[in-house]
Amino acid sequence: LVPRLRPFTSTIFAEMTALAARTGAVNLGQGFPDTDGPAGMLAAAQEAIASGINQYPPGPGRPELRAAIAASRARYGTAFDPDTEILVTVGATEAIAASLLALVEAGDEVILFEPYYDSYAASVAMAGATRKVVSLAEEPSGRFGLDVDALRAAVTPRTRVVLVNTPHNPTGTVLTRAELEAIAAVCVEHDLVAITDEVYEDLLFDGRAHVPLGSLPGMAERTLTISSAGKSFNCTGWKIGWVCGPADLVAAVRAAKQFLTFVGGAPFQPAVAHALRAESAWVAGLRDSLQDKRTRLSAGLAEAGFGVRAAEGTYFVCADVRPLGFTDGLQFCRDLPERVGVAAVPVQVFTDDPDRWRHLVRFAFCKRDDVLDEAIARLRRLA
Ligand code: PMP
Ligand code: GLN
Q1: Whose CA is nearest to atom 4 of ligand 2?
Q2: Tell me: the pLDDT tens digits for 299-339?
Q3: N or C: which end of the chain has fewer CB within 10 A?
Q4: Which residue ranges does the chain devote to CATH 3.40.640.10?
Q5: Does domain 3-37+281-382 correspond to CATH entry 3.40.50.1370?
Q6: Would you identify the CATH topology of the domain 41-278?
Q7: ipTM exceeding 0.95?
Q8: Which residues contact ligand 1 via a Cβ below 6 A?
Q9: Does ligand 2 lie within 6 Å of residue 169's CB atom?
């Protein structure tokens, strides 16, 4: 393995899911739902297969899916031409990798906010570029917010891209309009491209509204907006994602993407197009149910003795293990399946500054209530 990929040999999700399987633990580590998406979407995929949509789709994605993506972005007041400004990818993961491969190379710097989703650092490394990491700042409320001074301090003449994720994995933070405006101001001032990962765009709680960075003034021409079907429609294994942006940037991403996978997921594309067009009530129900699950698991973790942080959206809540007498979240997560039969994920592995994040672990609540209740009952044995 080449040196620049040696830090990325195995993902924490693979490690913790294997550990959960081996020990029979309740898996609140890797974030994936344990129920299926809307029945109409599942039927549409089956119909697509039965009707012969099984060969290579067009390079940019099937036209009905690109049209549905454009229509779905209209709710934010943003307009994309389905022919030139939207590209279907193999999940958000490929969209992120292809965007970075297209836009940065050796000598260029990419700003990431930590804790960062694990694929970001690996994709920056694959592109041969360098990451500059800005820590989110813990607020007294238990929310992790933007430290704009730290962001400004991270910009250098070599900075090309700022990669933003909201709603944020693993903290559950939803960036506010003011925070996004501050990021936009830095991008405009230094002529940077923003890549935004919005895969949890539908999963915001307590009445919060998602604001795409690309919808702010001065940002449409410099933002690649990435999302995917996995989280909105409980189909993380389908790996249908997309990137939207100005034609020149999307053309660049397409150049990289065509030699990664060329195309993918033919029969799932019409099914996701159906879901984007017709399943918004189902998605609202998913959001409400996840909000309840957030509340349920957060309360259970607090009763079990954790220091529970705010979860404003996503599948995830972070918790401090120190009140239970532990100091290291990684060791805690490696021992937890044997100790009480639950799997979680340490936050420090998503950072360049493990000491700052050592005390935090991430639990996924995108699980049936009975599964959450069983996990809570087991975690209470820690006290
Ligand atoms: N970004 C974030 C923040 C995620 O949490 C995930 C999936 N867990 C992805 C990207 C990957 O999305 P996809 O499965 O569509 O590749
Ligand atoms: N995105 C999921 C999570 O954060 C896992 C995805 C993966 O296993 N790579 O848990």
Answers
A1: 31
A2: 999 999 999 999 999 999 999 999 999 999 999 999 999 99
A3: N
A4: 41-278
A5: no
A6: Aspartate Aminotransferase; domain 2 (3.40.640)
A7: yes
A8: 31, 91-93, 117, 165, 169, 197, 199, 228, 230, 236, 239, 241
A9: yes
Q: Which residues contact 136 (CB under 8 A, 6 or more apart)?
A: 113, 114, 115, 144, 145, 146, 147, 168, 171, 173
Q: Which of 302, 315, 297, 292 is nearest to 374 (CA)?
A: 297
Nearest atom of ligand 1 to the alpha carbon of 95: 16
11, 17, 27, 32, best to mutate for ligand 2 pocket (most atoms within 8 Å of CB): 32
Among 19, 30, 169, say which to mutate for ligand 2: greatest number of ligand atoms within 8 Å of CB. Answer: 30
Beta-sheet strands, E only, within 229-272: 240-244
pLDDT score at 383? 85
Q: Whole-angstrom Cα distance, residue 272 to residue 339?
A: 41
User: In which region does residue 178 sit, left (phi positive, over 0), alpha (psi from -120 to 50) or beta (all else)?
Assistant: alpha
For the Cβ of 8 lying below 6 angstroms from any atom of ligand 2, the answer is: no
